[in-house]
Amino acid sequence: MDAMVADTLQKGTTMLKFADGKKKPVVCRIDPDEGWILYKSSKDVTVPIESIKELRLGAEGRYYRLQFKLPEEYEDRWITIIYIVDGTYKTLHLVAETQELFQKWSSALQKLYAIRQGLMTGLGNVESRQLVWERQYWKGADEEGDQVLDFDDIERLCKRLNVNLTPEGLRKAFDDADPLKRGYLDFAQFQSFAKVLKRRPEVEGIYANLCATNEGKFDLAAFVKFVKEFQKTKLSDSEIEAVFTKYASSPSAANLNEVPGILSYEGFSTFLMSNENTPFSEQGKPIWQDMTIPISDYYISSSHNTYLVGHQLVGVSTIEGYIRALLHSCRSVELDIYDGDKEPMVYHGKTLTSKVSLRDICNAIAKYAFVTSPYPVLISAEIHCSVPQQDTIVDIMTEIFGDSMIQAPLEGRPKIEKLPSPDALRHKFLLKAKNLYVTEQLAAAQAAKLAAKTAEQKAVAIAAEPSSSESSDNEAEVILKEGITDLKKTWKKLRGKESDAPAGEPHKAKMSFRLTSLLVYTVGVKCHGIRPDVEYAPEHIFSLSENAVNRLLKASMKDLVKHNHTHLVRIYPKGTRVNSTNYQPHRYWAAGCQVAAINWQTFDLGYRINQAMFQRNGHCGYVLKPEALRNPEKDLLSKRTQHFLDVTIISAQQLPRLRDSRGQEIIEKSVVDPYVEVYLHIPDWSHSPFLPESAKAAGARYSPSTDATTTTVSSARTVSFRTPVVKNNGFNPVWQEELCLPFDCVGDMKELIFVEFVVRQDGESEDHEPLGIYCIPLGCLEQGFHHLPLHDAQLTQHLFSTLFVQINIRDIA
């Protein structure tokens, strides 16, 4: 690591730091081994490199330079570091003194950031991860900087790691690593000590048992048996042999005497931690699903109030929300657009949130939209502007997005028979907004049907009275014609063809005709219910609050599924979620709703489920819906099955310490007493969940689905189990606890059930940030022995923390 960072950066250089409109010289330095950027301001500040979410270098930081009203000369030396501490996004803006110094900082930051990011994308890179661990903790333990560790240093390190060793056991391990009895360890000896410290008896036991069933050796035949019987692999025999050869035929640096063709314990343990044994079946896969069918048959990664990075009533509106979301492959962003002094502005209406210009947001969207995914971006806009500024919206979007903006001429637009596919819309922007003309037209059509029905009913009633049939027919006909005539007048008024205004005064249209030209495949309309007598064109999309869709699910879930096969529906959080909490989107995915909009600034369960879903399909922001929701005519939804998820929580490795509000580890007066909870989050797709008495007796906890109230949020049904607590051991706690979670499934849609593993500190409430989390769609969870990479509450992966489990799914019916 040292070689990547110039000595001058490790010792510290003076940089200009900008914050709150002020500039201040600070000395910044990089510690490559500990993985920190450090500077002294009013207090010492540490930025862990693994907490960095984005680097913006040079011209990429122009938005901030302009906000600070700084001269252009700063731009080619500009560094913006965006990172998370204590659940909050923070920005650090620095300007190097010279171009040469900027180049050194830029190169070092990008290399260190790339290495850490590579280690924080699942498993694998075992040797690199081990070296980073050794360098990081060696450097942290060597307080004197003399390149050796005495027993006191090792004792402090083990306390930091929360290693559960007796003083006698620790002394023996130290002495064994110091055969010359010098009283200290050099780096090579520390590496030997670390191997003893990180010994895994539970994995050794599994290996020994597998060898015992194969005449004491672990050859190819034993490996084939293991991956087929325990891991339930889908690999072919030739692919299995290739994996075996990779780990069996290459002796490790620590043991050059390993025999090719025999999988040693070291090779076995490396395989268990490798990407060939990932718990997520789609981990690292490119885009693999068919992207050529209509867009209505996909789930679309979506955000709500994208411009906000904080509270919904008093938060900051900024381009940052769009950049973050788009870089994580979000494909639907939201704009609330209001009149500005010169050009339209975006902010949360009737609140104290700040404002940001539509032009700045569109520039950010254009720059970042297709960095991580080529598929279309849906811009969902609530437009509260006057007609002149609606025209300005069109000018801004067509200028910035150019040919990538889907648009159509006002007249002669061909009728749309079905929606295009994501593949047909690559690198395109779709504007979704309410078309008032179409909305009123749809309302008029519904009113006409209602008037006709009323007239028919009245005619039947009149016919029953003692009068001539001719007068009855005439009266019914008059009622029907009058109703339709009134509706036609309303429609003409809206289009400006007829006006109640005094002669000579122009009619004030509600909507710019130019704006309607941008509404092609995503024409916003009001929902008039989902019934056979209500017709929507394929391009019609309506938005429903979570409360509204909950009512719709109870009334006609199958009708909603059928509607969503050919039409898009957007779901958004109810208005009383002022603290920007989220619903659980899988409840609505289970009905085929594609655009379930999430508050990306809030790291709660709904956010975690959303991120777990869209890790799939190459992380492109589009995931094909299950067949049961794409082909309602097959009636796969009538198939209901019952299962058990059997989970053995075996052990955890190097759980993170508790941290303070600055992100610093709390070591003194802090011990880790961990336990694990496993949750199954299940859509409410049946009236009677599968909950056998045996599971309840074993400790399964069931929480039914709930609708949102003024004080609580909505939730799907949940089944959960928890392990006992392991006292004072965050380094290598072992549980060997068998859990059994029952669940029912409809249409074999296991990818809409989400499994969540949460490692908690004993004594902390469930509202407190857990030690580690792993969330995954059940349909993507591989069976067998796996290490689950643990994340913090913001879904940043811990570098060295894993949970070792065994997974099995049993089918009951």
Automatic annotation (TrEMBL):
The keyword Hydrolase applies. Gene3D superfamilies: C2 domain, EF-hand, Phosphatidylinositol (PI) phosphodiesterase, Pleckstrin-homology domain (PH domain)/Phosphotyrosine-binding domain (PTB). InterPro entries: C2_dom, C2_domain_sf, EF-hand-dom_pair, EF_hand_dom, PH-like_dom_sf, PI-PLC_fam, PLC-beta_PH, PLC-like_Pdiesterase_TIM-brl. SMART domains: C2, PLCXc, PLCYc. Residues 165-200 form the EF-hand domain. It comes from the Eukaryota. Pfam families: C2 (PF00168), EF-hand_like (PF09279), PH_14 (PF17787), PI-PLC-X (PF00388), PI-PLC-Y (PF00387). The keyword Lipid metabolism applies. One of its GO terms (biological process) is phosphatidylinositol-mediated signaling. Residues 515-630 form the PI-PLC Y-box domain. It catalyses: a 1,2-diacyl-sn-glycero-3-phospho-(1D-myo-inositol-4,5-bisphosphate) + H2O = 1D-myo-inositol 1,4,5-trisphosphate + a 1,2-diacyl-sn-glycerol + H(+). Its cofactor is Ca(2+). Its EC number is 3.1.4.11. Residues 625-792 form the C2 domain. SUPFAM superfamilies: C2 domain (Calcium/lipid-binding domain, CaLB), EF-hand, PH domain-like, PLC-like phosphodiesterases. GO terms for molecular function: calcium ion binding; phosphatidylinositol-4,5-bisphosphate phospholipase C activity. Keywords: Hydrolase, Lipid degradation, Lipid metabolism, Transducer. This is Phosphoinositide phospholipase C. It comes from Hypholoma sublateritium (strain FD-334 SS-4).
